[in-house]
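In practice, a research group might receive sequence data for several interacting partners and want a quick structural hypothesis before committing to experiments. The following worked case mirrors that situation: the sequences arrive first, and a predicted assembly follows.
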Amino acid sequence: MKISCLHENLAKGLNIVGRAVASRSTLPVLGNVLLSTDSAGLKLSATNLEMGITCWIGAKVHEEGSTTLPAKTLIDLVGTLPKERIDLDLDVRTQTMKVACAEFTNEIKCIDSNDFPVLPSTDDKYDLEINVSNLREMIDQVVFVAATDDSRPVLTGVEVTIEKEKLTFAAADGFRLAVCSSSLSTADDTHIDVIIPARALAELARIIGDESDVVSITMPPSGGQIIFRVKDVELVCQLIEGTFPDYQQLLPDSYQTRVVMSTEKILAACRAAQIFARESSYAVTLSVKSGENPGEDRVDVSANSAETGSNESSIEASVDGDSIEMAFNVRYLTEVLRVIGTPDVALETNGEASPGVLRPVGRDDFVSVVMPMHVGR
Amino acid sequence: MAIKKLKASVISKISAGEVVERPASVVKELLENSVDASAQSVGIDILGSGLDQIKVSDDGSGIPTSEVELVFARHATSKLNSEADLESIRTLGFRGEALASIAAVSRVELVTRFSAEDTGVRLQLVDGILKDRKSVGVPPGTVIQVDNLFYNVPPRLKFLKSESTERSLAKRVVSRYAMAYPHIRFSFVSDNRKGFRTYGNGNLLDVITSVYGSDVAENMVEISDVEQDGIVVSGLVSSPELSRSNRQEITFFINGRHIYDAQLNFAIMRAYHTMLMTGRYPIAVISLVIPPSKLDVNVHPTKSEVRFVDKNIVFQAVEKAVRRTLLDYVSKSTMIKSASVGETLSQASSWSELDTSDRKHDFSVAEDQLINSRLSGMEMPVLRVIGQTNAAFIIAEGPDGVYMIDQHAAHERILYEEYVDAAKMDELRSQMLLQALTVQLAAEDSETLSNNLDKLTTLGFDIEYFGNDSFIVRAVPAIVDSSDIEEVLMSIVKYRSDDLYGVPEWSEDQIIKRVCRLVAVRAGKVLSYDEQVDLLRNLETCKSPGTCPHGRPTMIYFSLGSIRNQFGR
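A structural hypothesis for the assembly, expressed as C-alpha cells:
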C-alpha cells in the first residue's frame, strides 16, 4: 500500500471517524483506524462495534492495500505535521507504515487489516433519501431526552418513523418526552419505524454539520442495522430491538391553563433557579398568575435551599385559563427550553399533578412533555 | 431379610452417634459432668486430635462406691428423679446417656472418690463392658480417661476433620465453659503442651484474657446485669472497634449451658446495627439466666439448642441490654474525644435534637450519635481531587496526606442525608412518571409491600395496589432520578428476605437506605473531573462524611508521614 494525500483531507477524515474509535476495548484493533484504498481514493473506518463510521478522502493511490493504525498515534501525529502532502507507505511484511511529510519521517506499527471487523456498506444503493434542511436541529431537539442508563434499553434510543412523507423523532426517559417532526419532499411510500441509539444519532448530527446535504438511508437486508450516508461519510449503527412506548396517548389533547412566555426570559429564570435548586433535587416552583387586567399575567419561578438560600424571578406572560402552581425538575425545563427554537414558548397543563406540555409558539413540529414534581405531603 | 431385634451392643453404638459425634463432644459431656459435680478445678488433657486420649480430671463430689457401676448404664443419672423435674432442670446433664454412649465407642477408665468416703474406686471398661474394678487411694474427685475413641466404629472416623481442627474444636468447647464458669479453674493441655489456664477467681475478663489474649480483653465492654421480664443478661461484648470476620465468637450461655441459636446471634447483630461494617461480627460472651420453666432444653441430644416459651422476650432482652451497653460505651468515648475536637459534639447534639423534636419519622437518635461519635476523630478537610482510579475510587489530596474515597459509599452518604433531611423538613420531593409503571410481584412480596405502602407514600413514592399482586407506580422520590425504578422497588421489597428475624414492617430508615444504595453511583462508572469535584464538595457538607449509611467507610487516609516512611525519607 502506497498513497499520497493532502494533510487537510487526512486530518478532516480522521476527525470524523475518530469519534467511533473504541476508547477502552479488550480488542486492540478497535482502537485502530482502518486505512484501505478503493476506487474513490482512501477509505478511513473506525468502529466500537455499536457504531461505525467510514469516510472517503481524496488521495493518489500508487499501490493498493490496507492496514490499521492506532487511532490516537495517527491523530496526534497528523496534528503536528505541517499542512503539506503526506506520503503513506506500508511495509506489508513487518506491518509498519511509513508516514512522511515534508522533512518529517515516521514509522508506525500497524495491525493487519484482516483483524478489523467488516462494516456493512451501502454499495451506492439506497432505500431512501431524505432532504431535510433542519435534520441536525431535529436531532438536537430530542437526543438529550433519551435515557442514559440501560434499565430499559428502548429508552436509550430515539424512535425514528418515516410515514406518509413525514419524518418523526421521539425520545423519552421515565419522566419526560420530546417529539419533533418534519415533512419530507420525496413522495415515497416507504415506511420505516426503528429505534436508533441516541449516541449514534448525535454523532450523525455532528457529521451533517451545517450542511443541508441529502442524507441517504439504507437498511441492510440482514436486519438489525441502519446505514446513513452524507456525502463522503457513512455511519452504520446497531438498531435497538423492542417496542417504543406509545407516546401519542401521553400527549394531552386539551388544557386548563396555557401560558405563553418569552423563551429567553423563562430560560434565564430557570438557569438562575437551578443554582438554588441543586440541593433540593432540582425542584423549582412555577407559579402561574392570571392577572385581573390584560398585561398583568405573570409567571413566578422560585427555588430555595436550606443551605444556599432562595431565588425568585417574576416574568411577563400571557395566561389563558386558571392560575396554577406546579413544581418541576428544573434541569428538565432548561434542557427543553434551550431547543425550543422560537422566541416564545407555551406551557400547557391540566393541573399540578398533570404533565406540563411545552410547545414552541408558532410552530407545530415540536412538543415536549415534562412530568411535574410533588413537594411535601 | 427377616425382621429381628437388634443386639444391645448395636443399639448402643447407634445411639452413641447422637451424643458423641467427635472428640469435642466427649470433652463437652465430661466437662458438664465435672461442672455438675460442683468441681472447683477441672483439667482437660488431650493427645492428638483427642481420638488417642482425652482425660478430664476434677475435684468435684465424686461418685459413691455403691453407685459407681451404674454410671455407665444407659439412662442412669443422679440429676433427675421424676418427670416433674424436667420442668426445672438446673444441671447441665440429665439424660443419663453420655457416659454410656462414650463407653460404647471407646476404652474408658474411671477413677473416683466420693468426698464422704475414705477410699476411691477404679473401673476399666472396654466396649461398654466392665473389665476391671479395684479399690484405690485417691484424692476426692473424678478422673475419666477415654482412650481409642471410635476404635470400634470406623465409619465415624471418616467424618472427622484434620487433627488440628478436631483439637481446636475441643479447645473451643473448653474455652466456652471456662467463660461460662469463671469461678471454676480450667486448664487445657494438649499433647503435653499448655493450651490455656483460667484462675477461677470469678472474673470473666480474666478468663477472656486467657482465652483470647489481652488485646481482645482490653476492647471488651461489660454488660451490667440487666433484668427484664425475669431474664438476666450479663457478659461482655466487644467494642465497635474490635470485630471478626465470622460469627463464631458470639457465644451464648443459657443457665450455664452453651447454646447456639441463630436468632440470638441476630439479636446481637441488631444491637450492633450501623456500628460494624457488613461482613464483620463482634466477639460476645453473653450469659442468660432464664427461669427453667420458661424454656425446654430437651430438644437435641447434645442440648446445643433450646426452645423458649416466648422467644421475643429473650430476643428483646438481649438486644436491649447489648445496645444499651454499646451506647453507654460510645457516649463515654465521645466525651473523651470531643474534648479534643470541640465542634463535633455540638454538631452531634443539634442533629439529635432535630430528631427528637420530630417524632413523626422514626430515625433512631442512637444511630446518628453512634455514627457521629465514630467519626469524631476525623473531620473532613477540604480536599483537592487528583483523579479517579479503577472507575471506583477518587484520589484526593488533603492538607496532611492523601485520601481515597469510595465513590459509591460517598454518594450513598450524600443521598442518605439529603433524603433524611428532606423527610424531616417535610420537603420530600417526588417526581411523577411519564408512564405509570406496572410491577408484578410474587404473592408474599405483594403482601409485604401492601403492608408498607403508607411508609412508602410518606417517603415520596406513589404506589397503588392494582390487584393480582401487581402494583402501579405513579411517582418516585426525586433522588431516584433516572435509575431503574423497578430495581429500586424490588430491592426494597426483598429487604425482608435477608432478615432472619422477619421484620414485618420496615422502618423509614431502612427504606431510605435501600433506595440510596441503589441510586448511588456505582463502582465501575467513569466520572468526569467535575463530577468528582462535585461529589467531594457534597460529601464535605454531610454531617457524617466518614461512613456510608451501612457503616462502611467512605474514605481511607494515608498520612504524609506514613507515605514518607514508606519511601524511607
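Before designing any experiment, note the following. Helices of chain A lie at 7-17, 71-80, 135-142, 198-208, 263-277, 330-338. Residues 2-115 of chain A form a domain with the DNA Polymerase III; Chain A, domain 2 fold (CATH 3.10.150.10).
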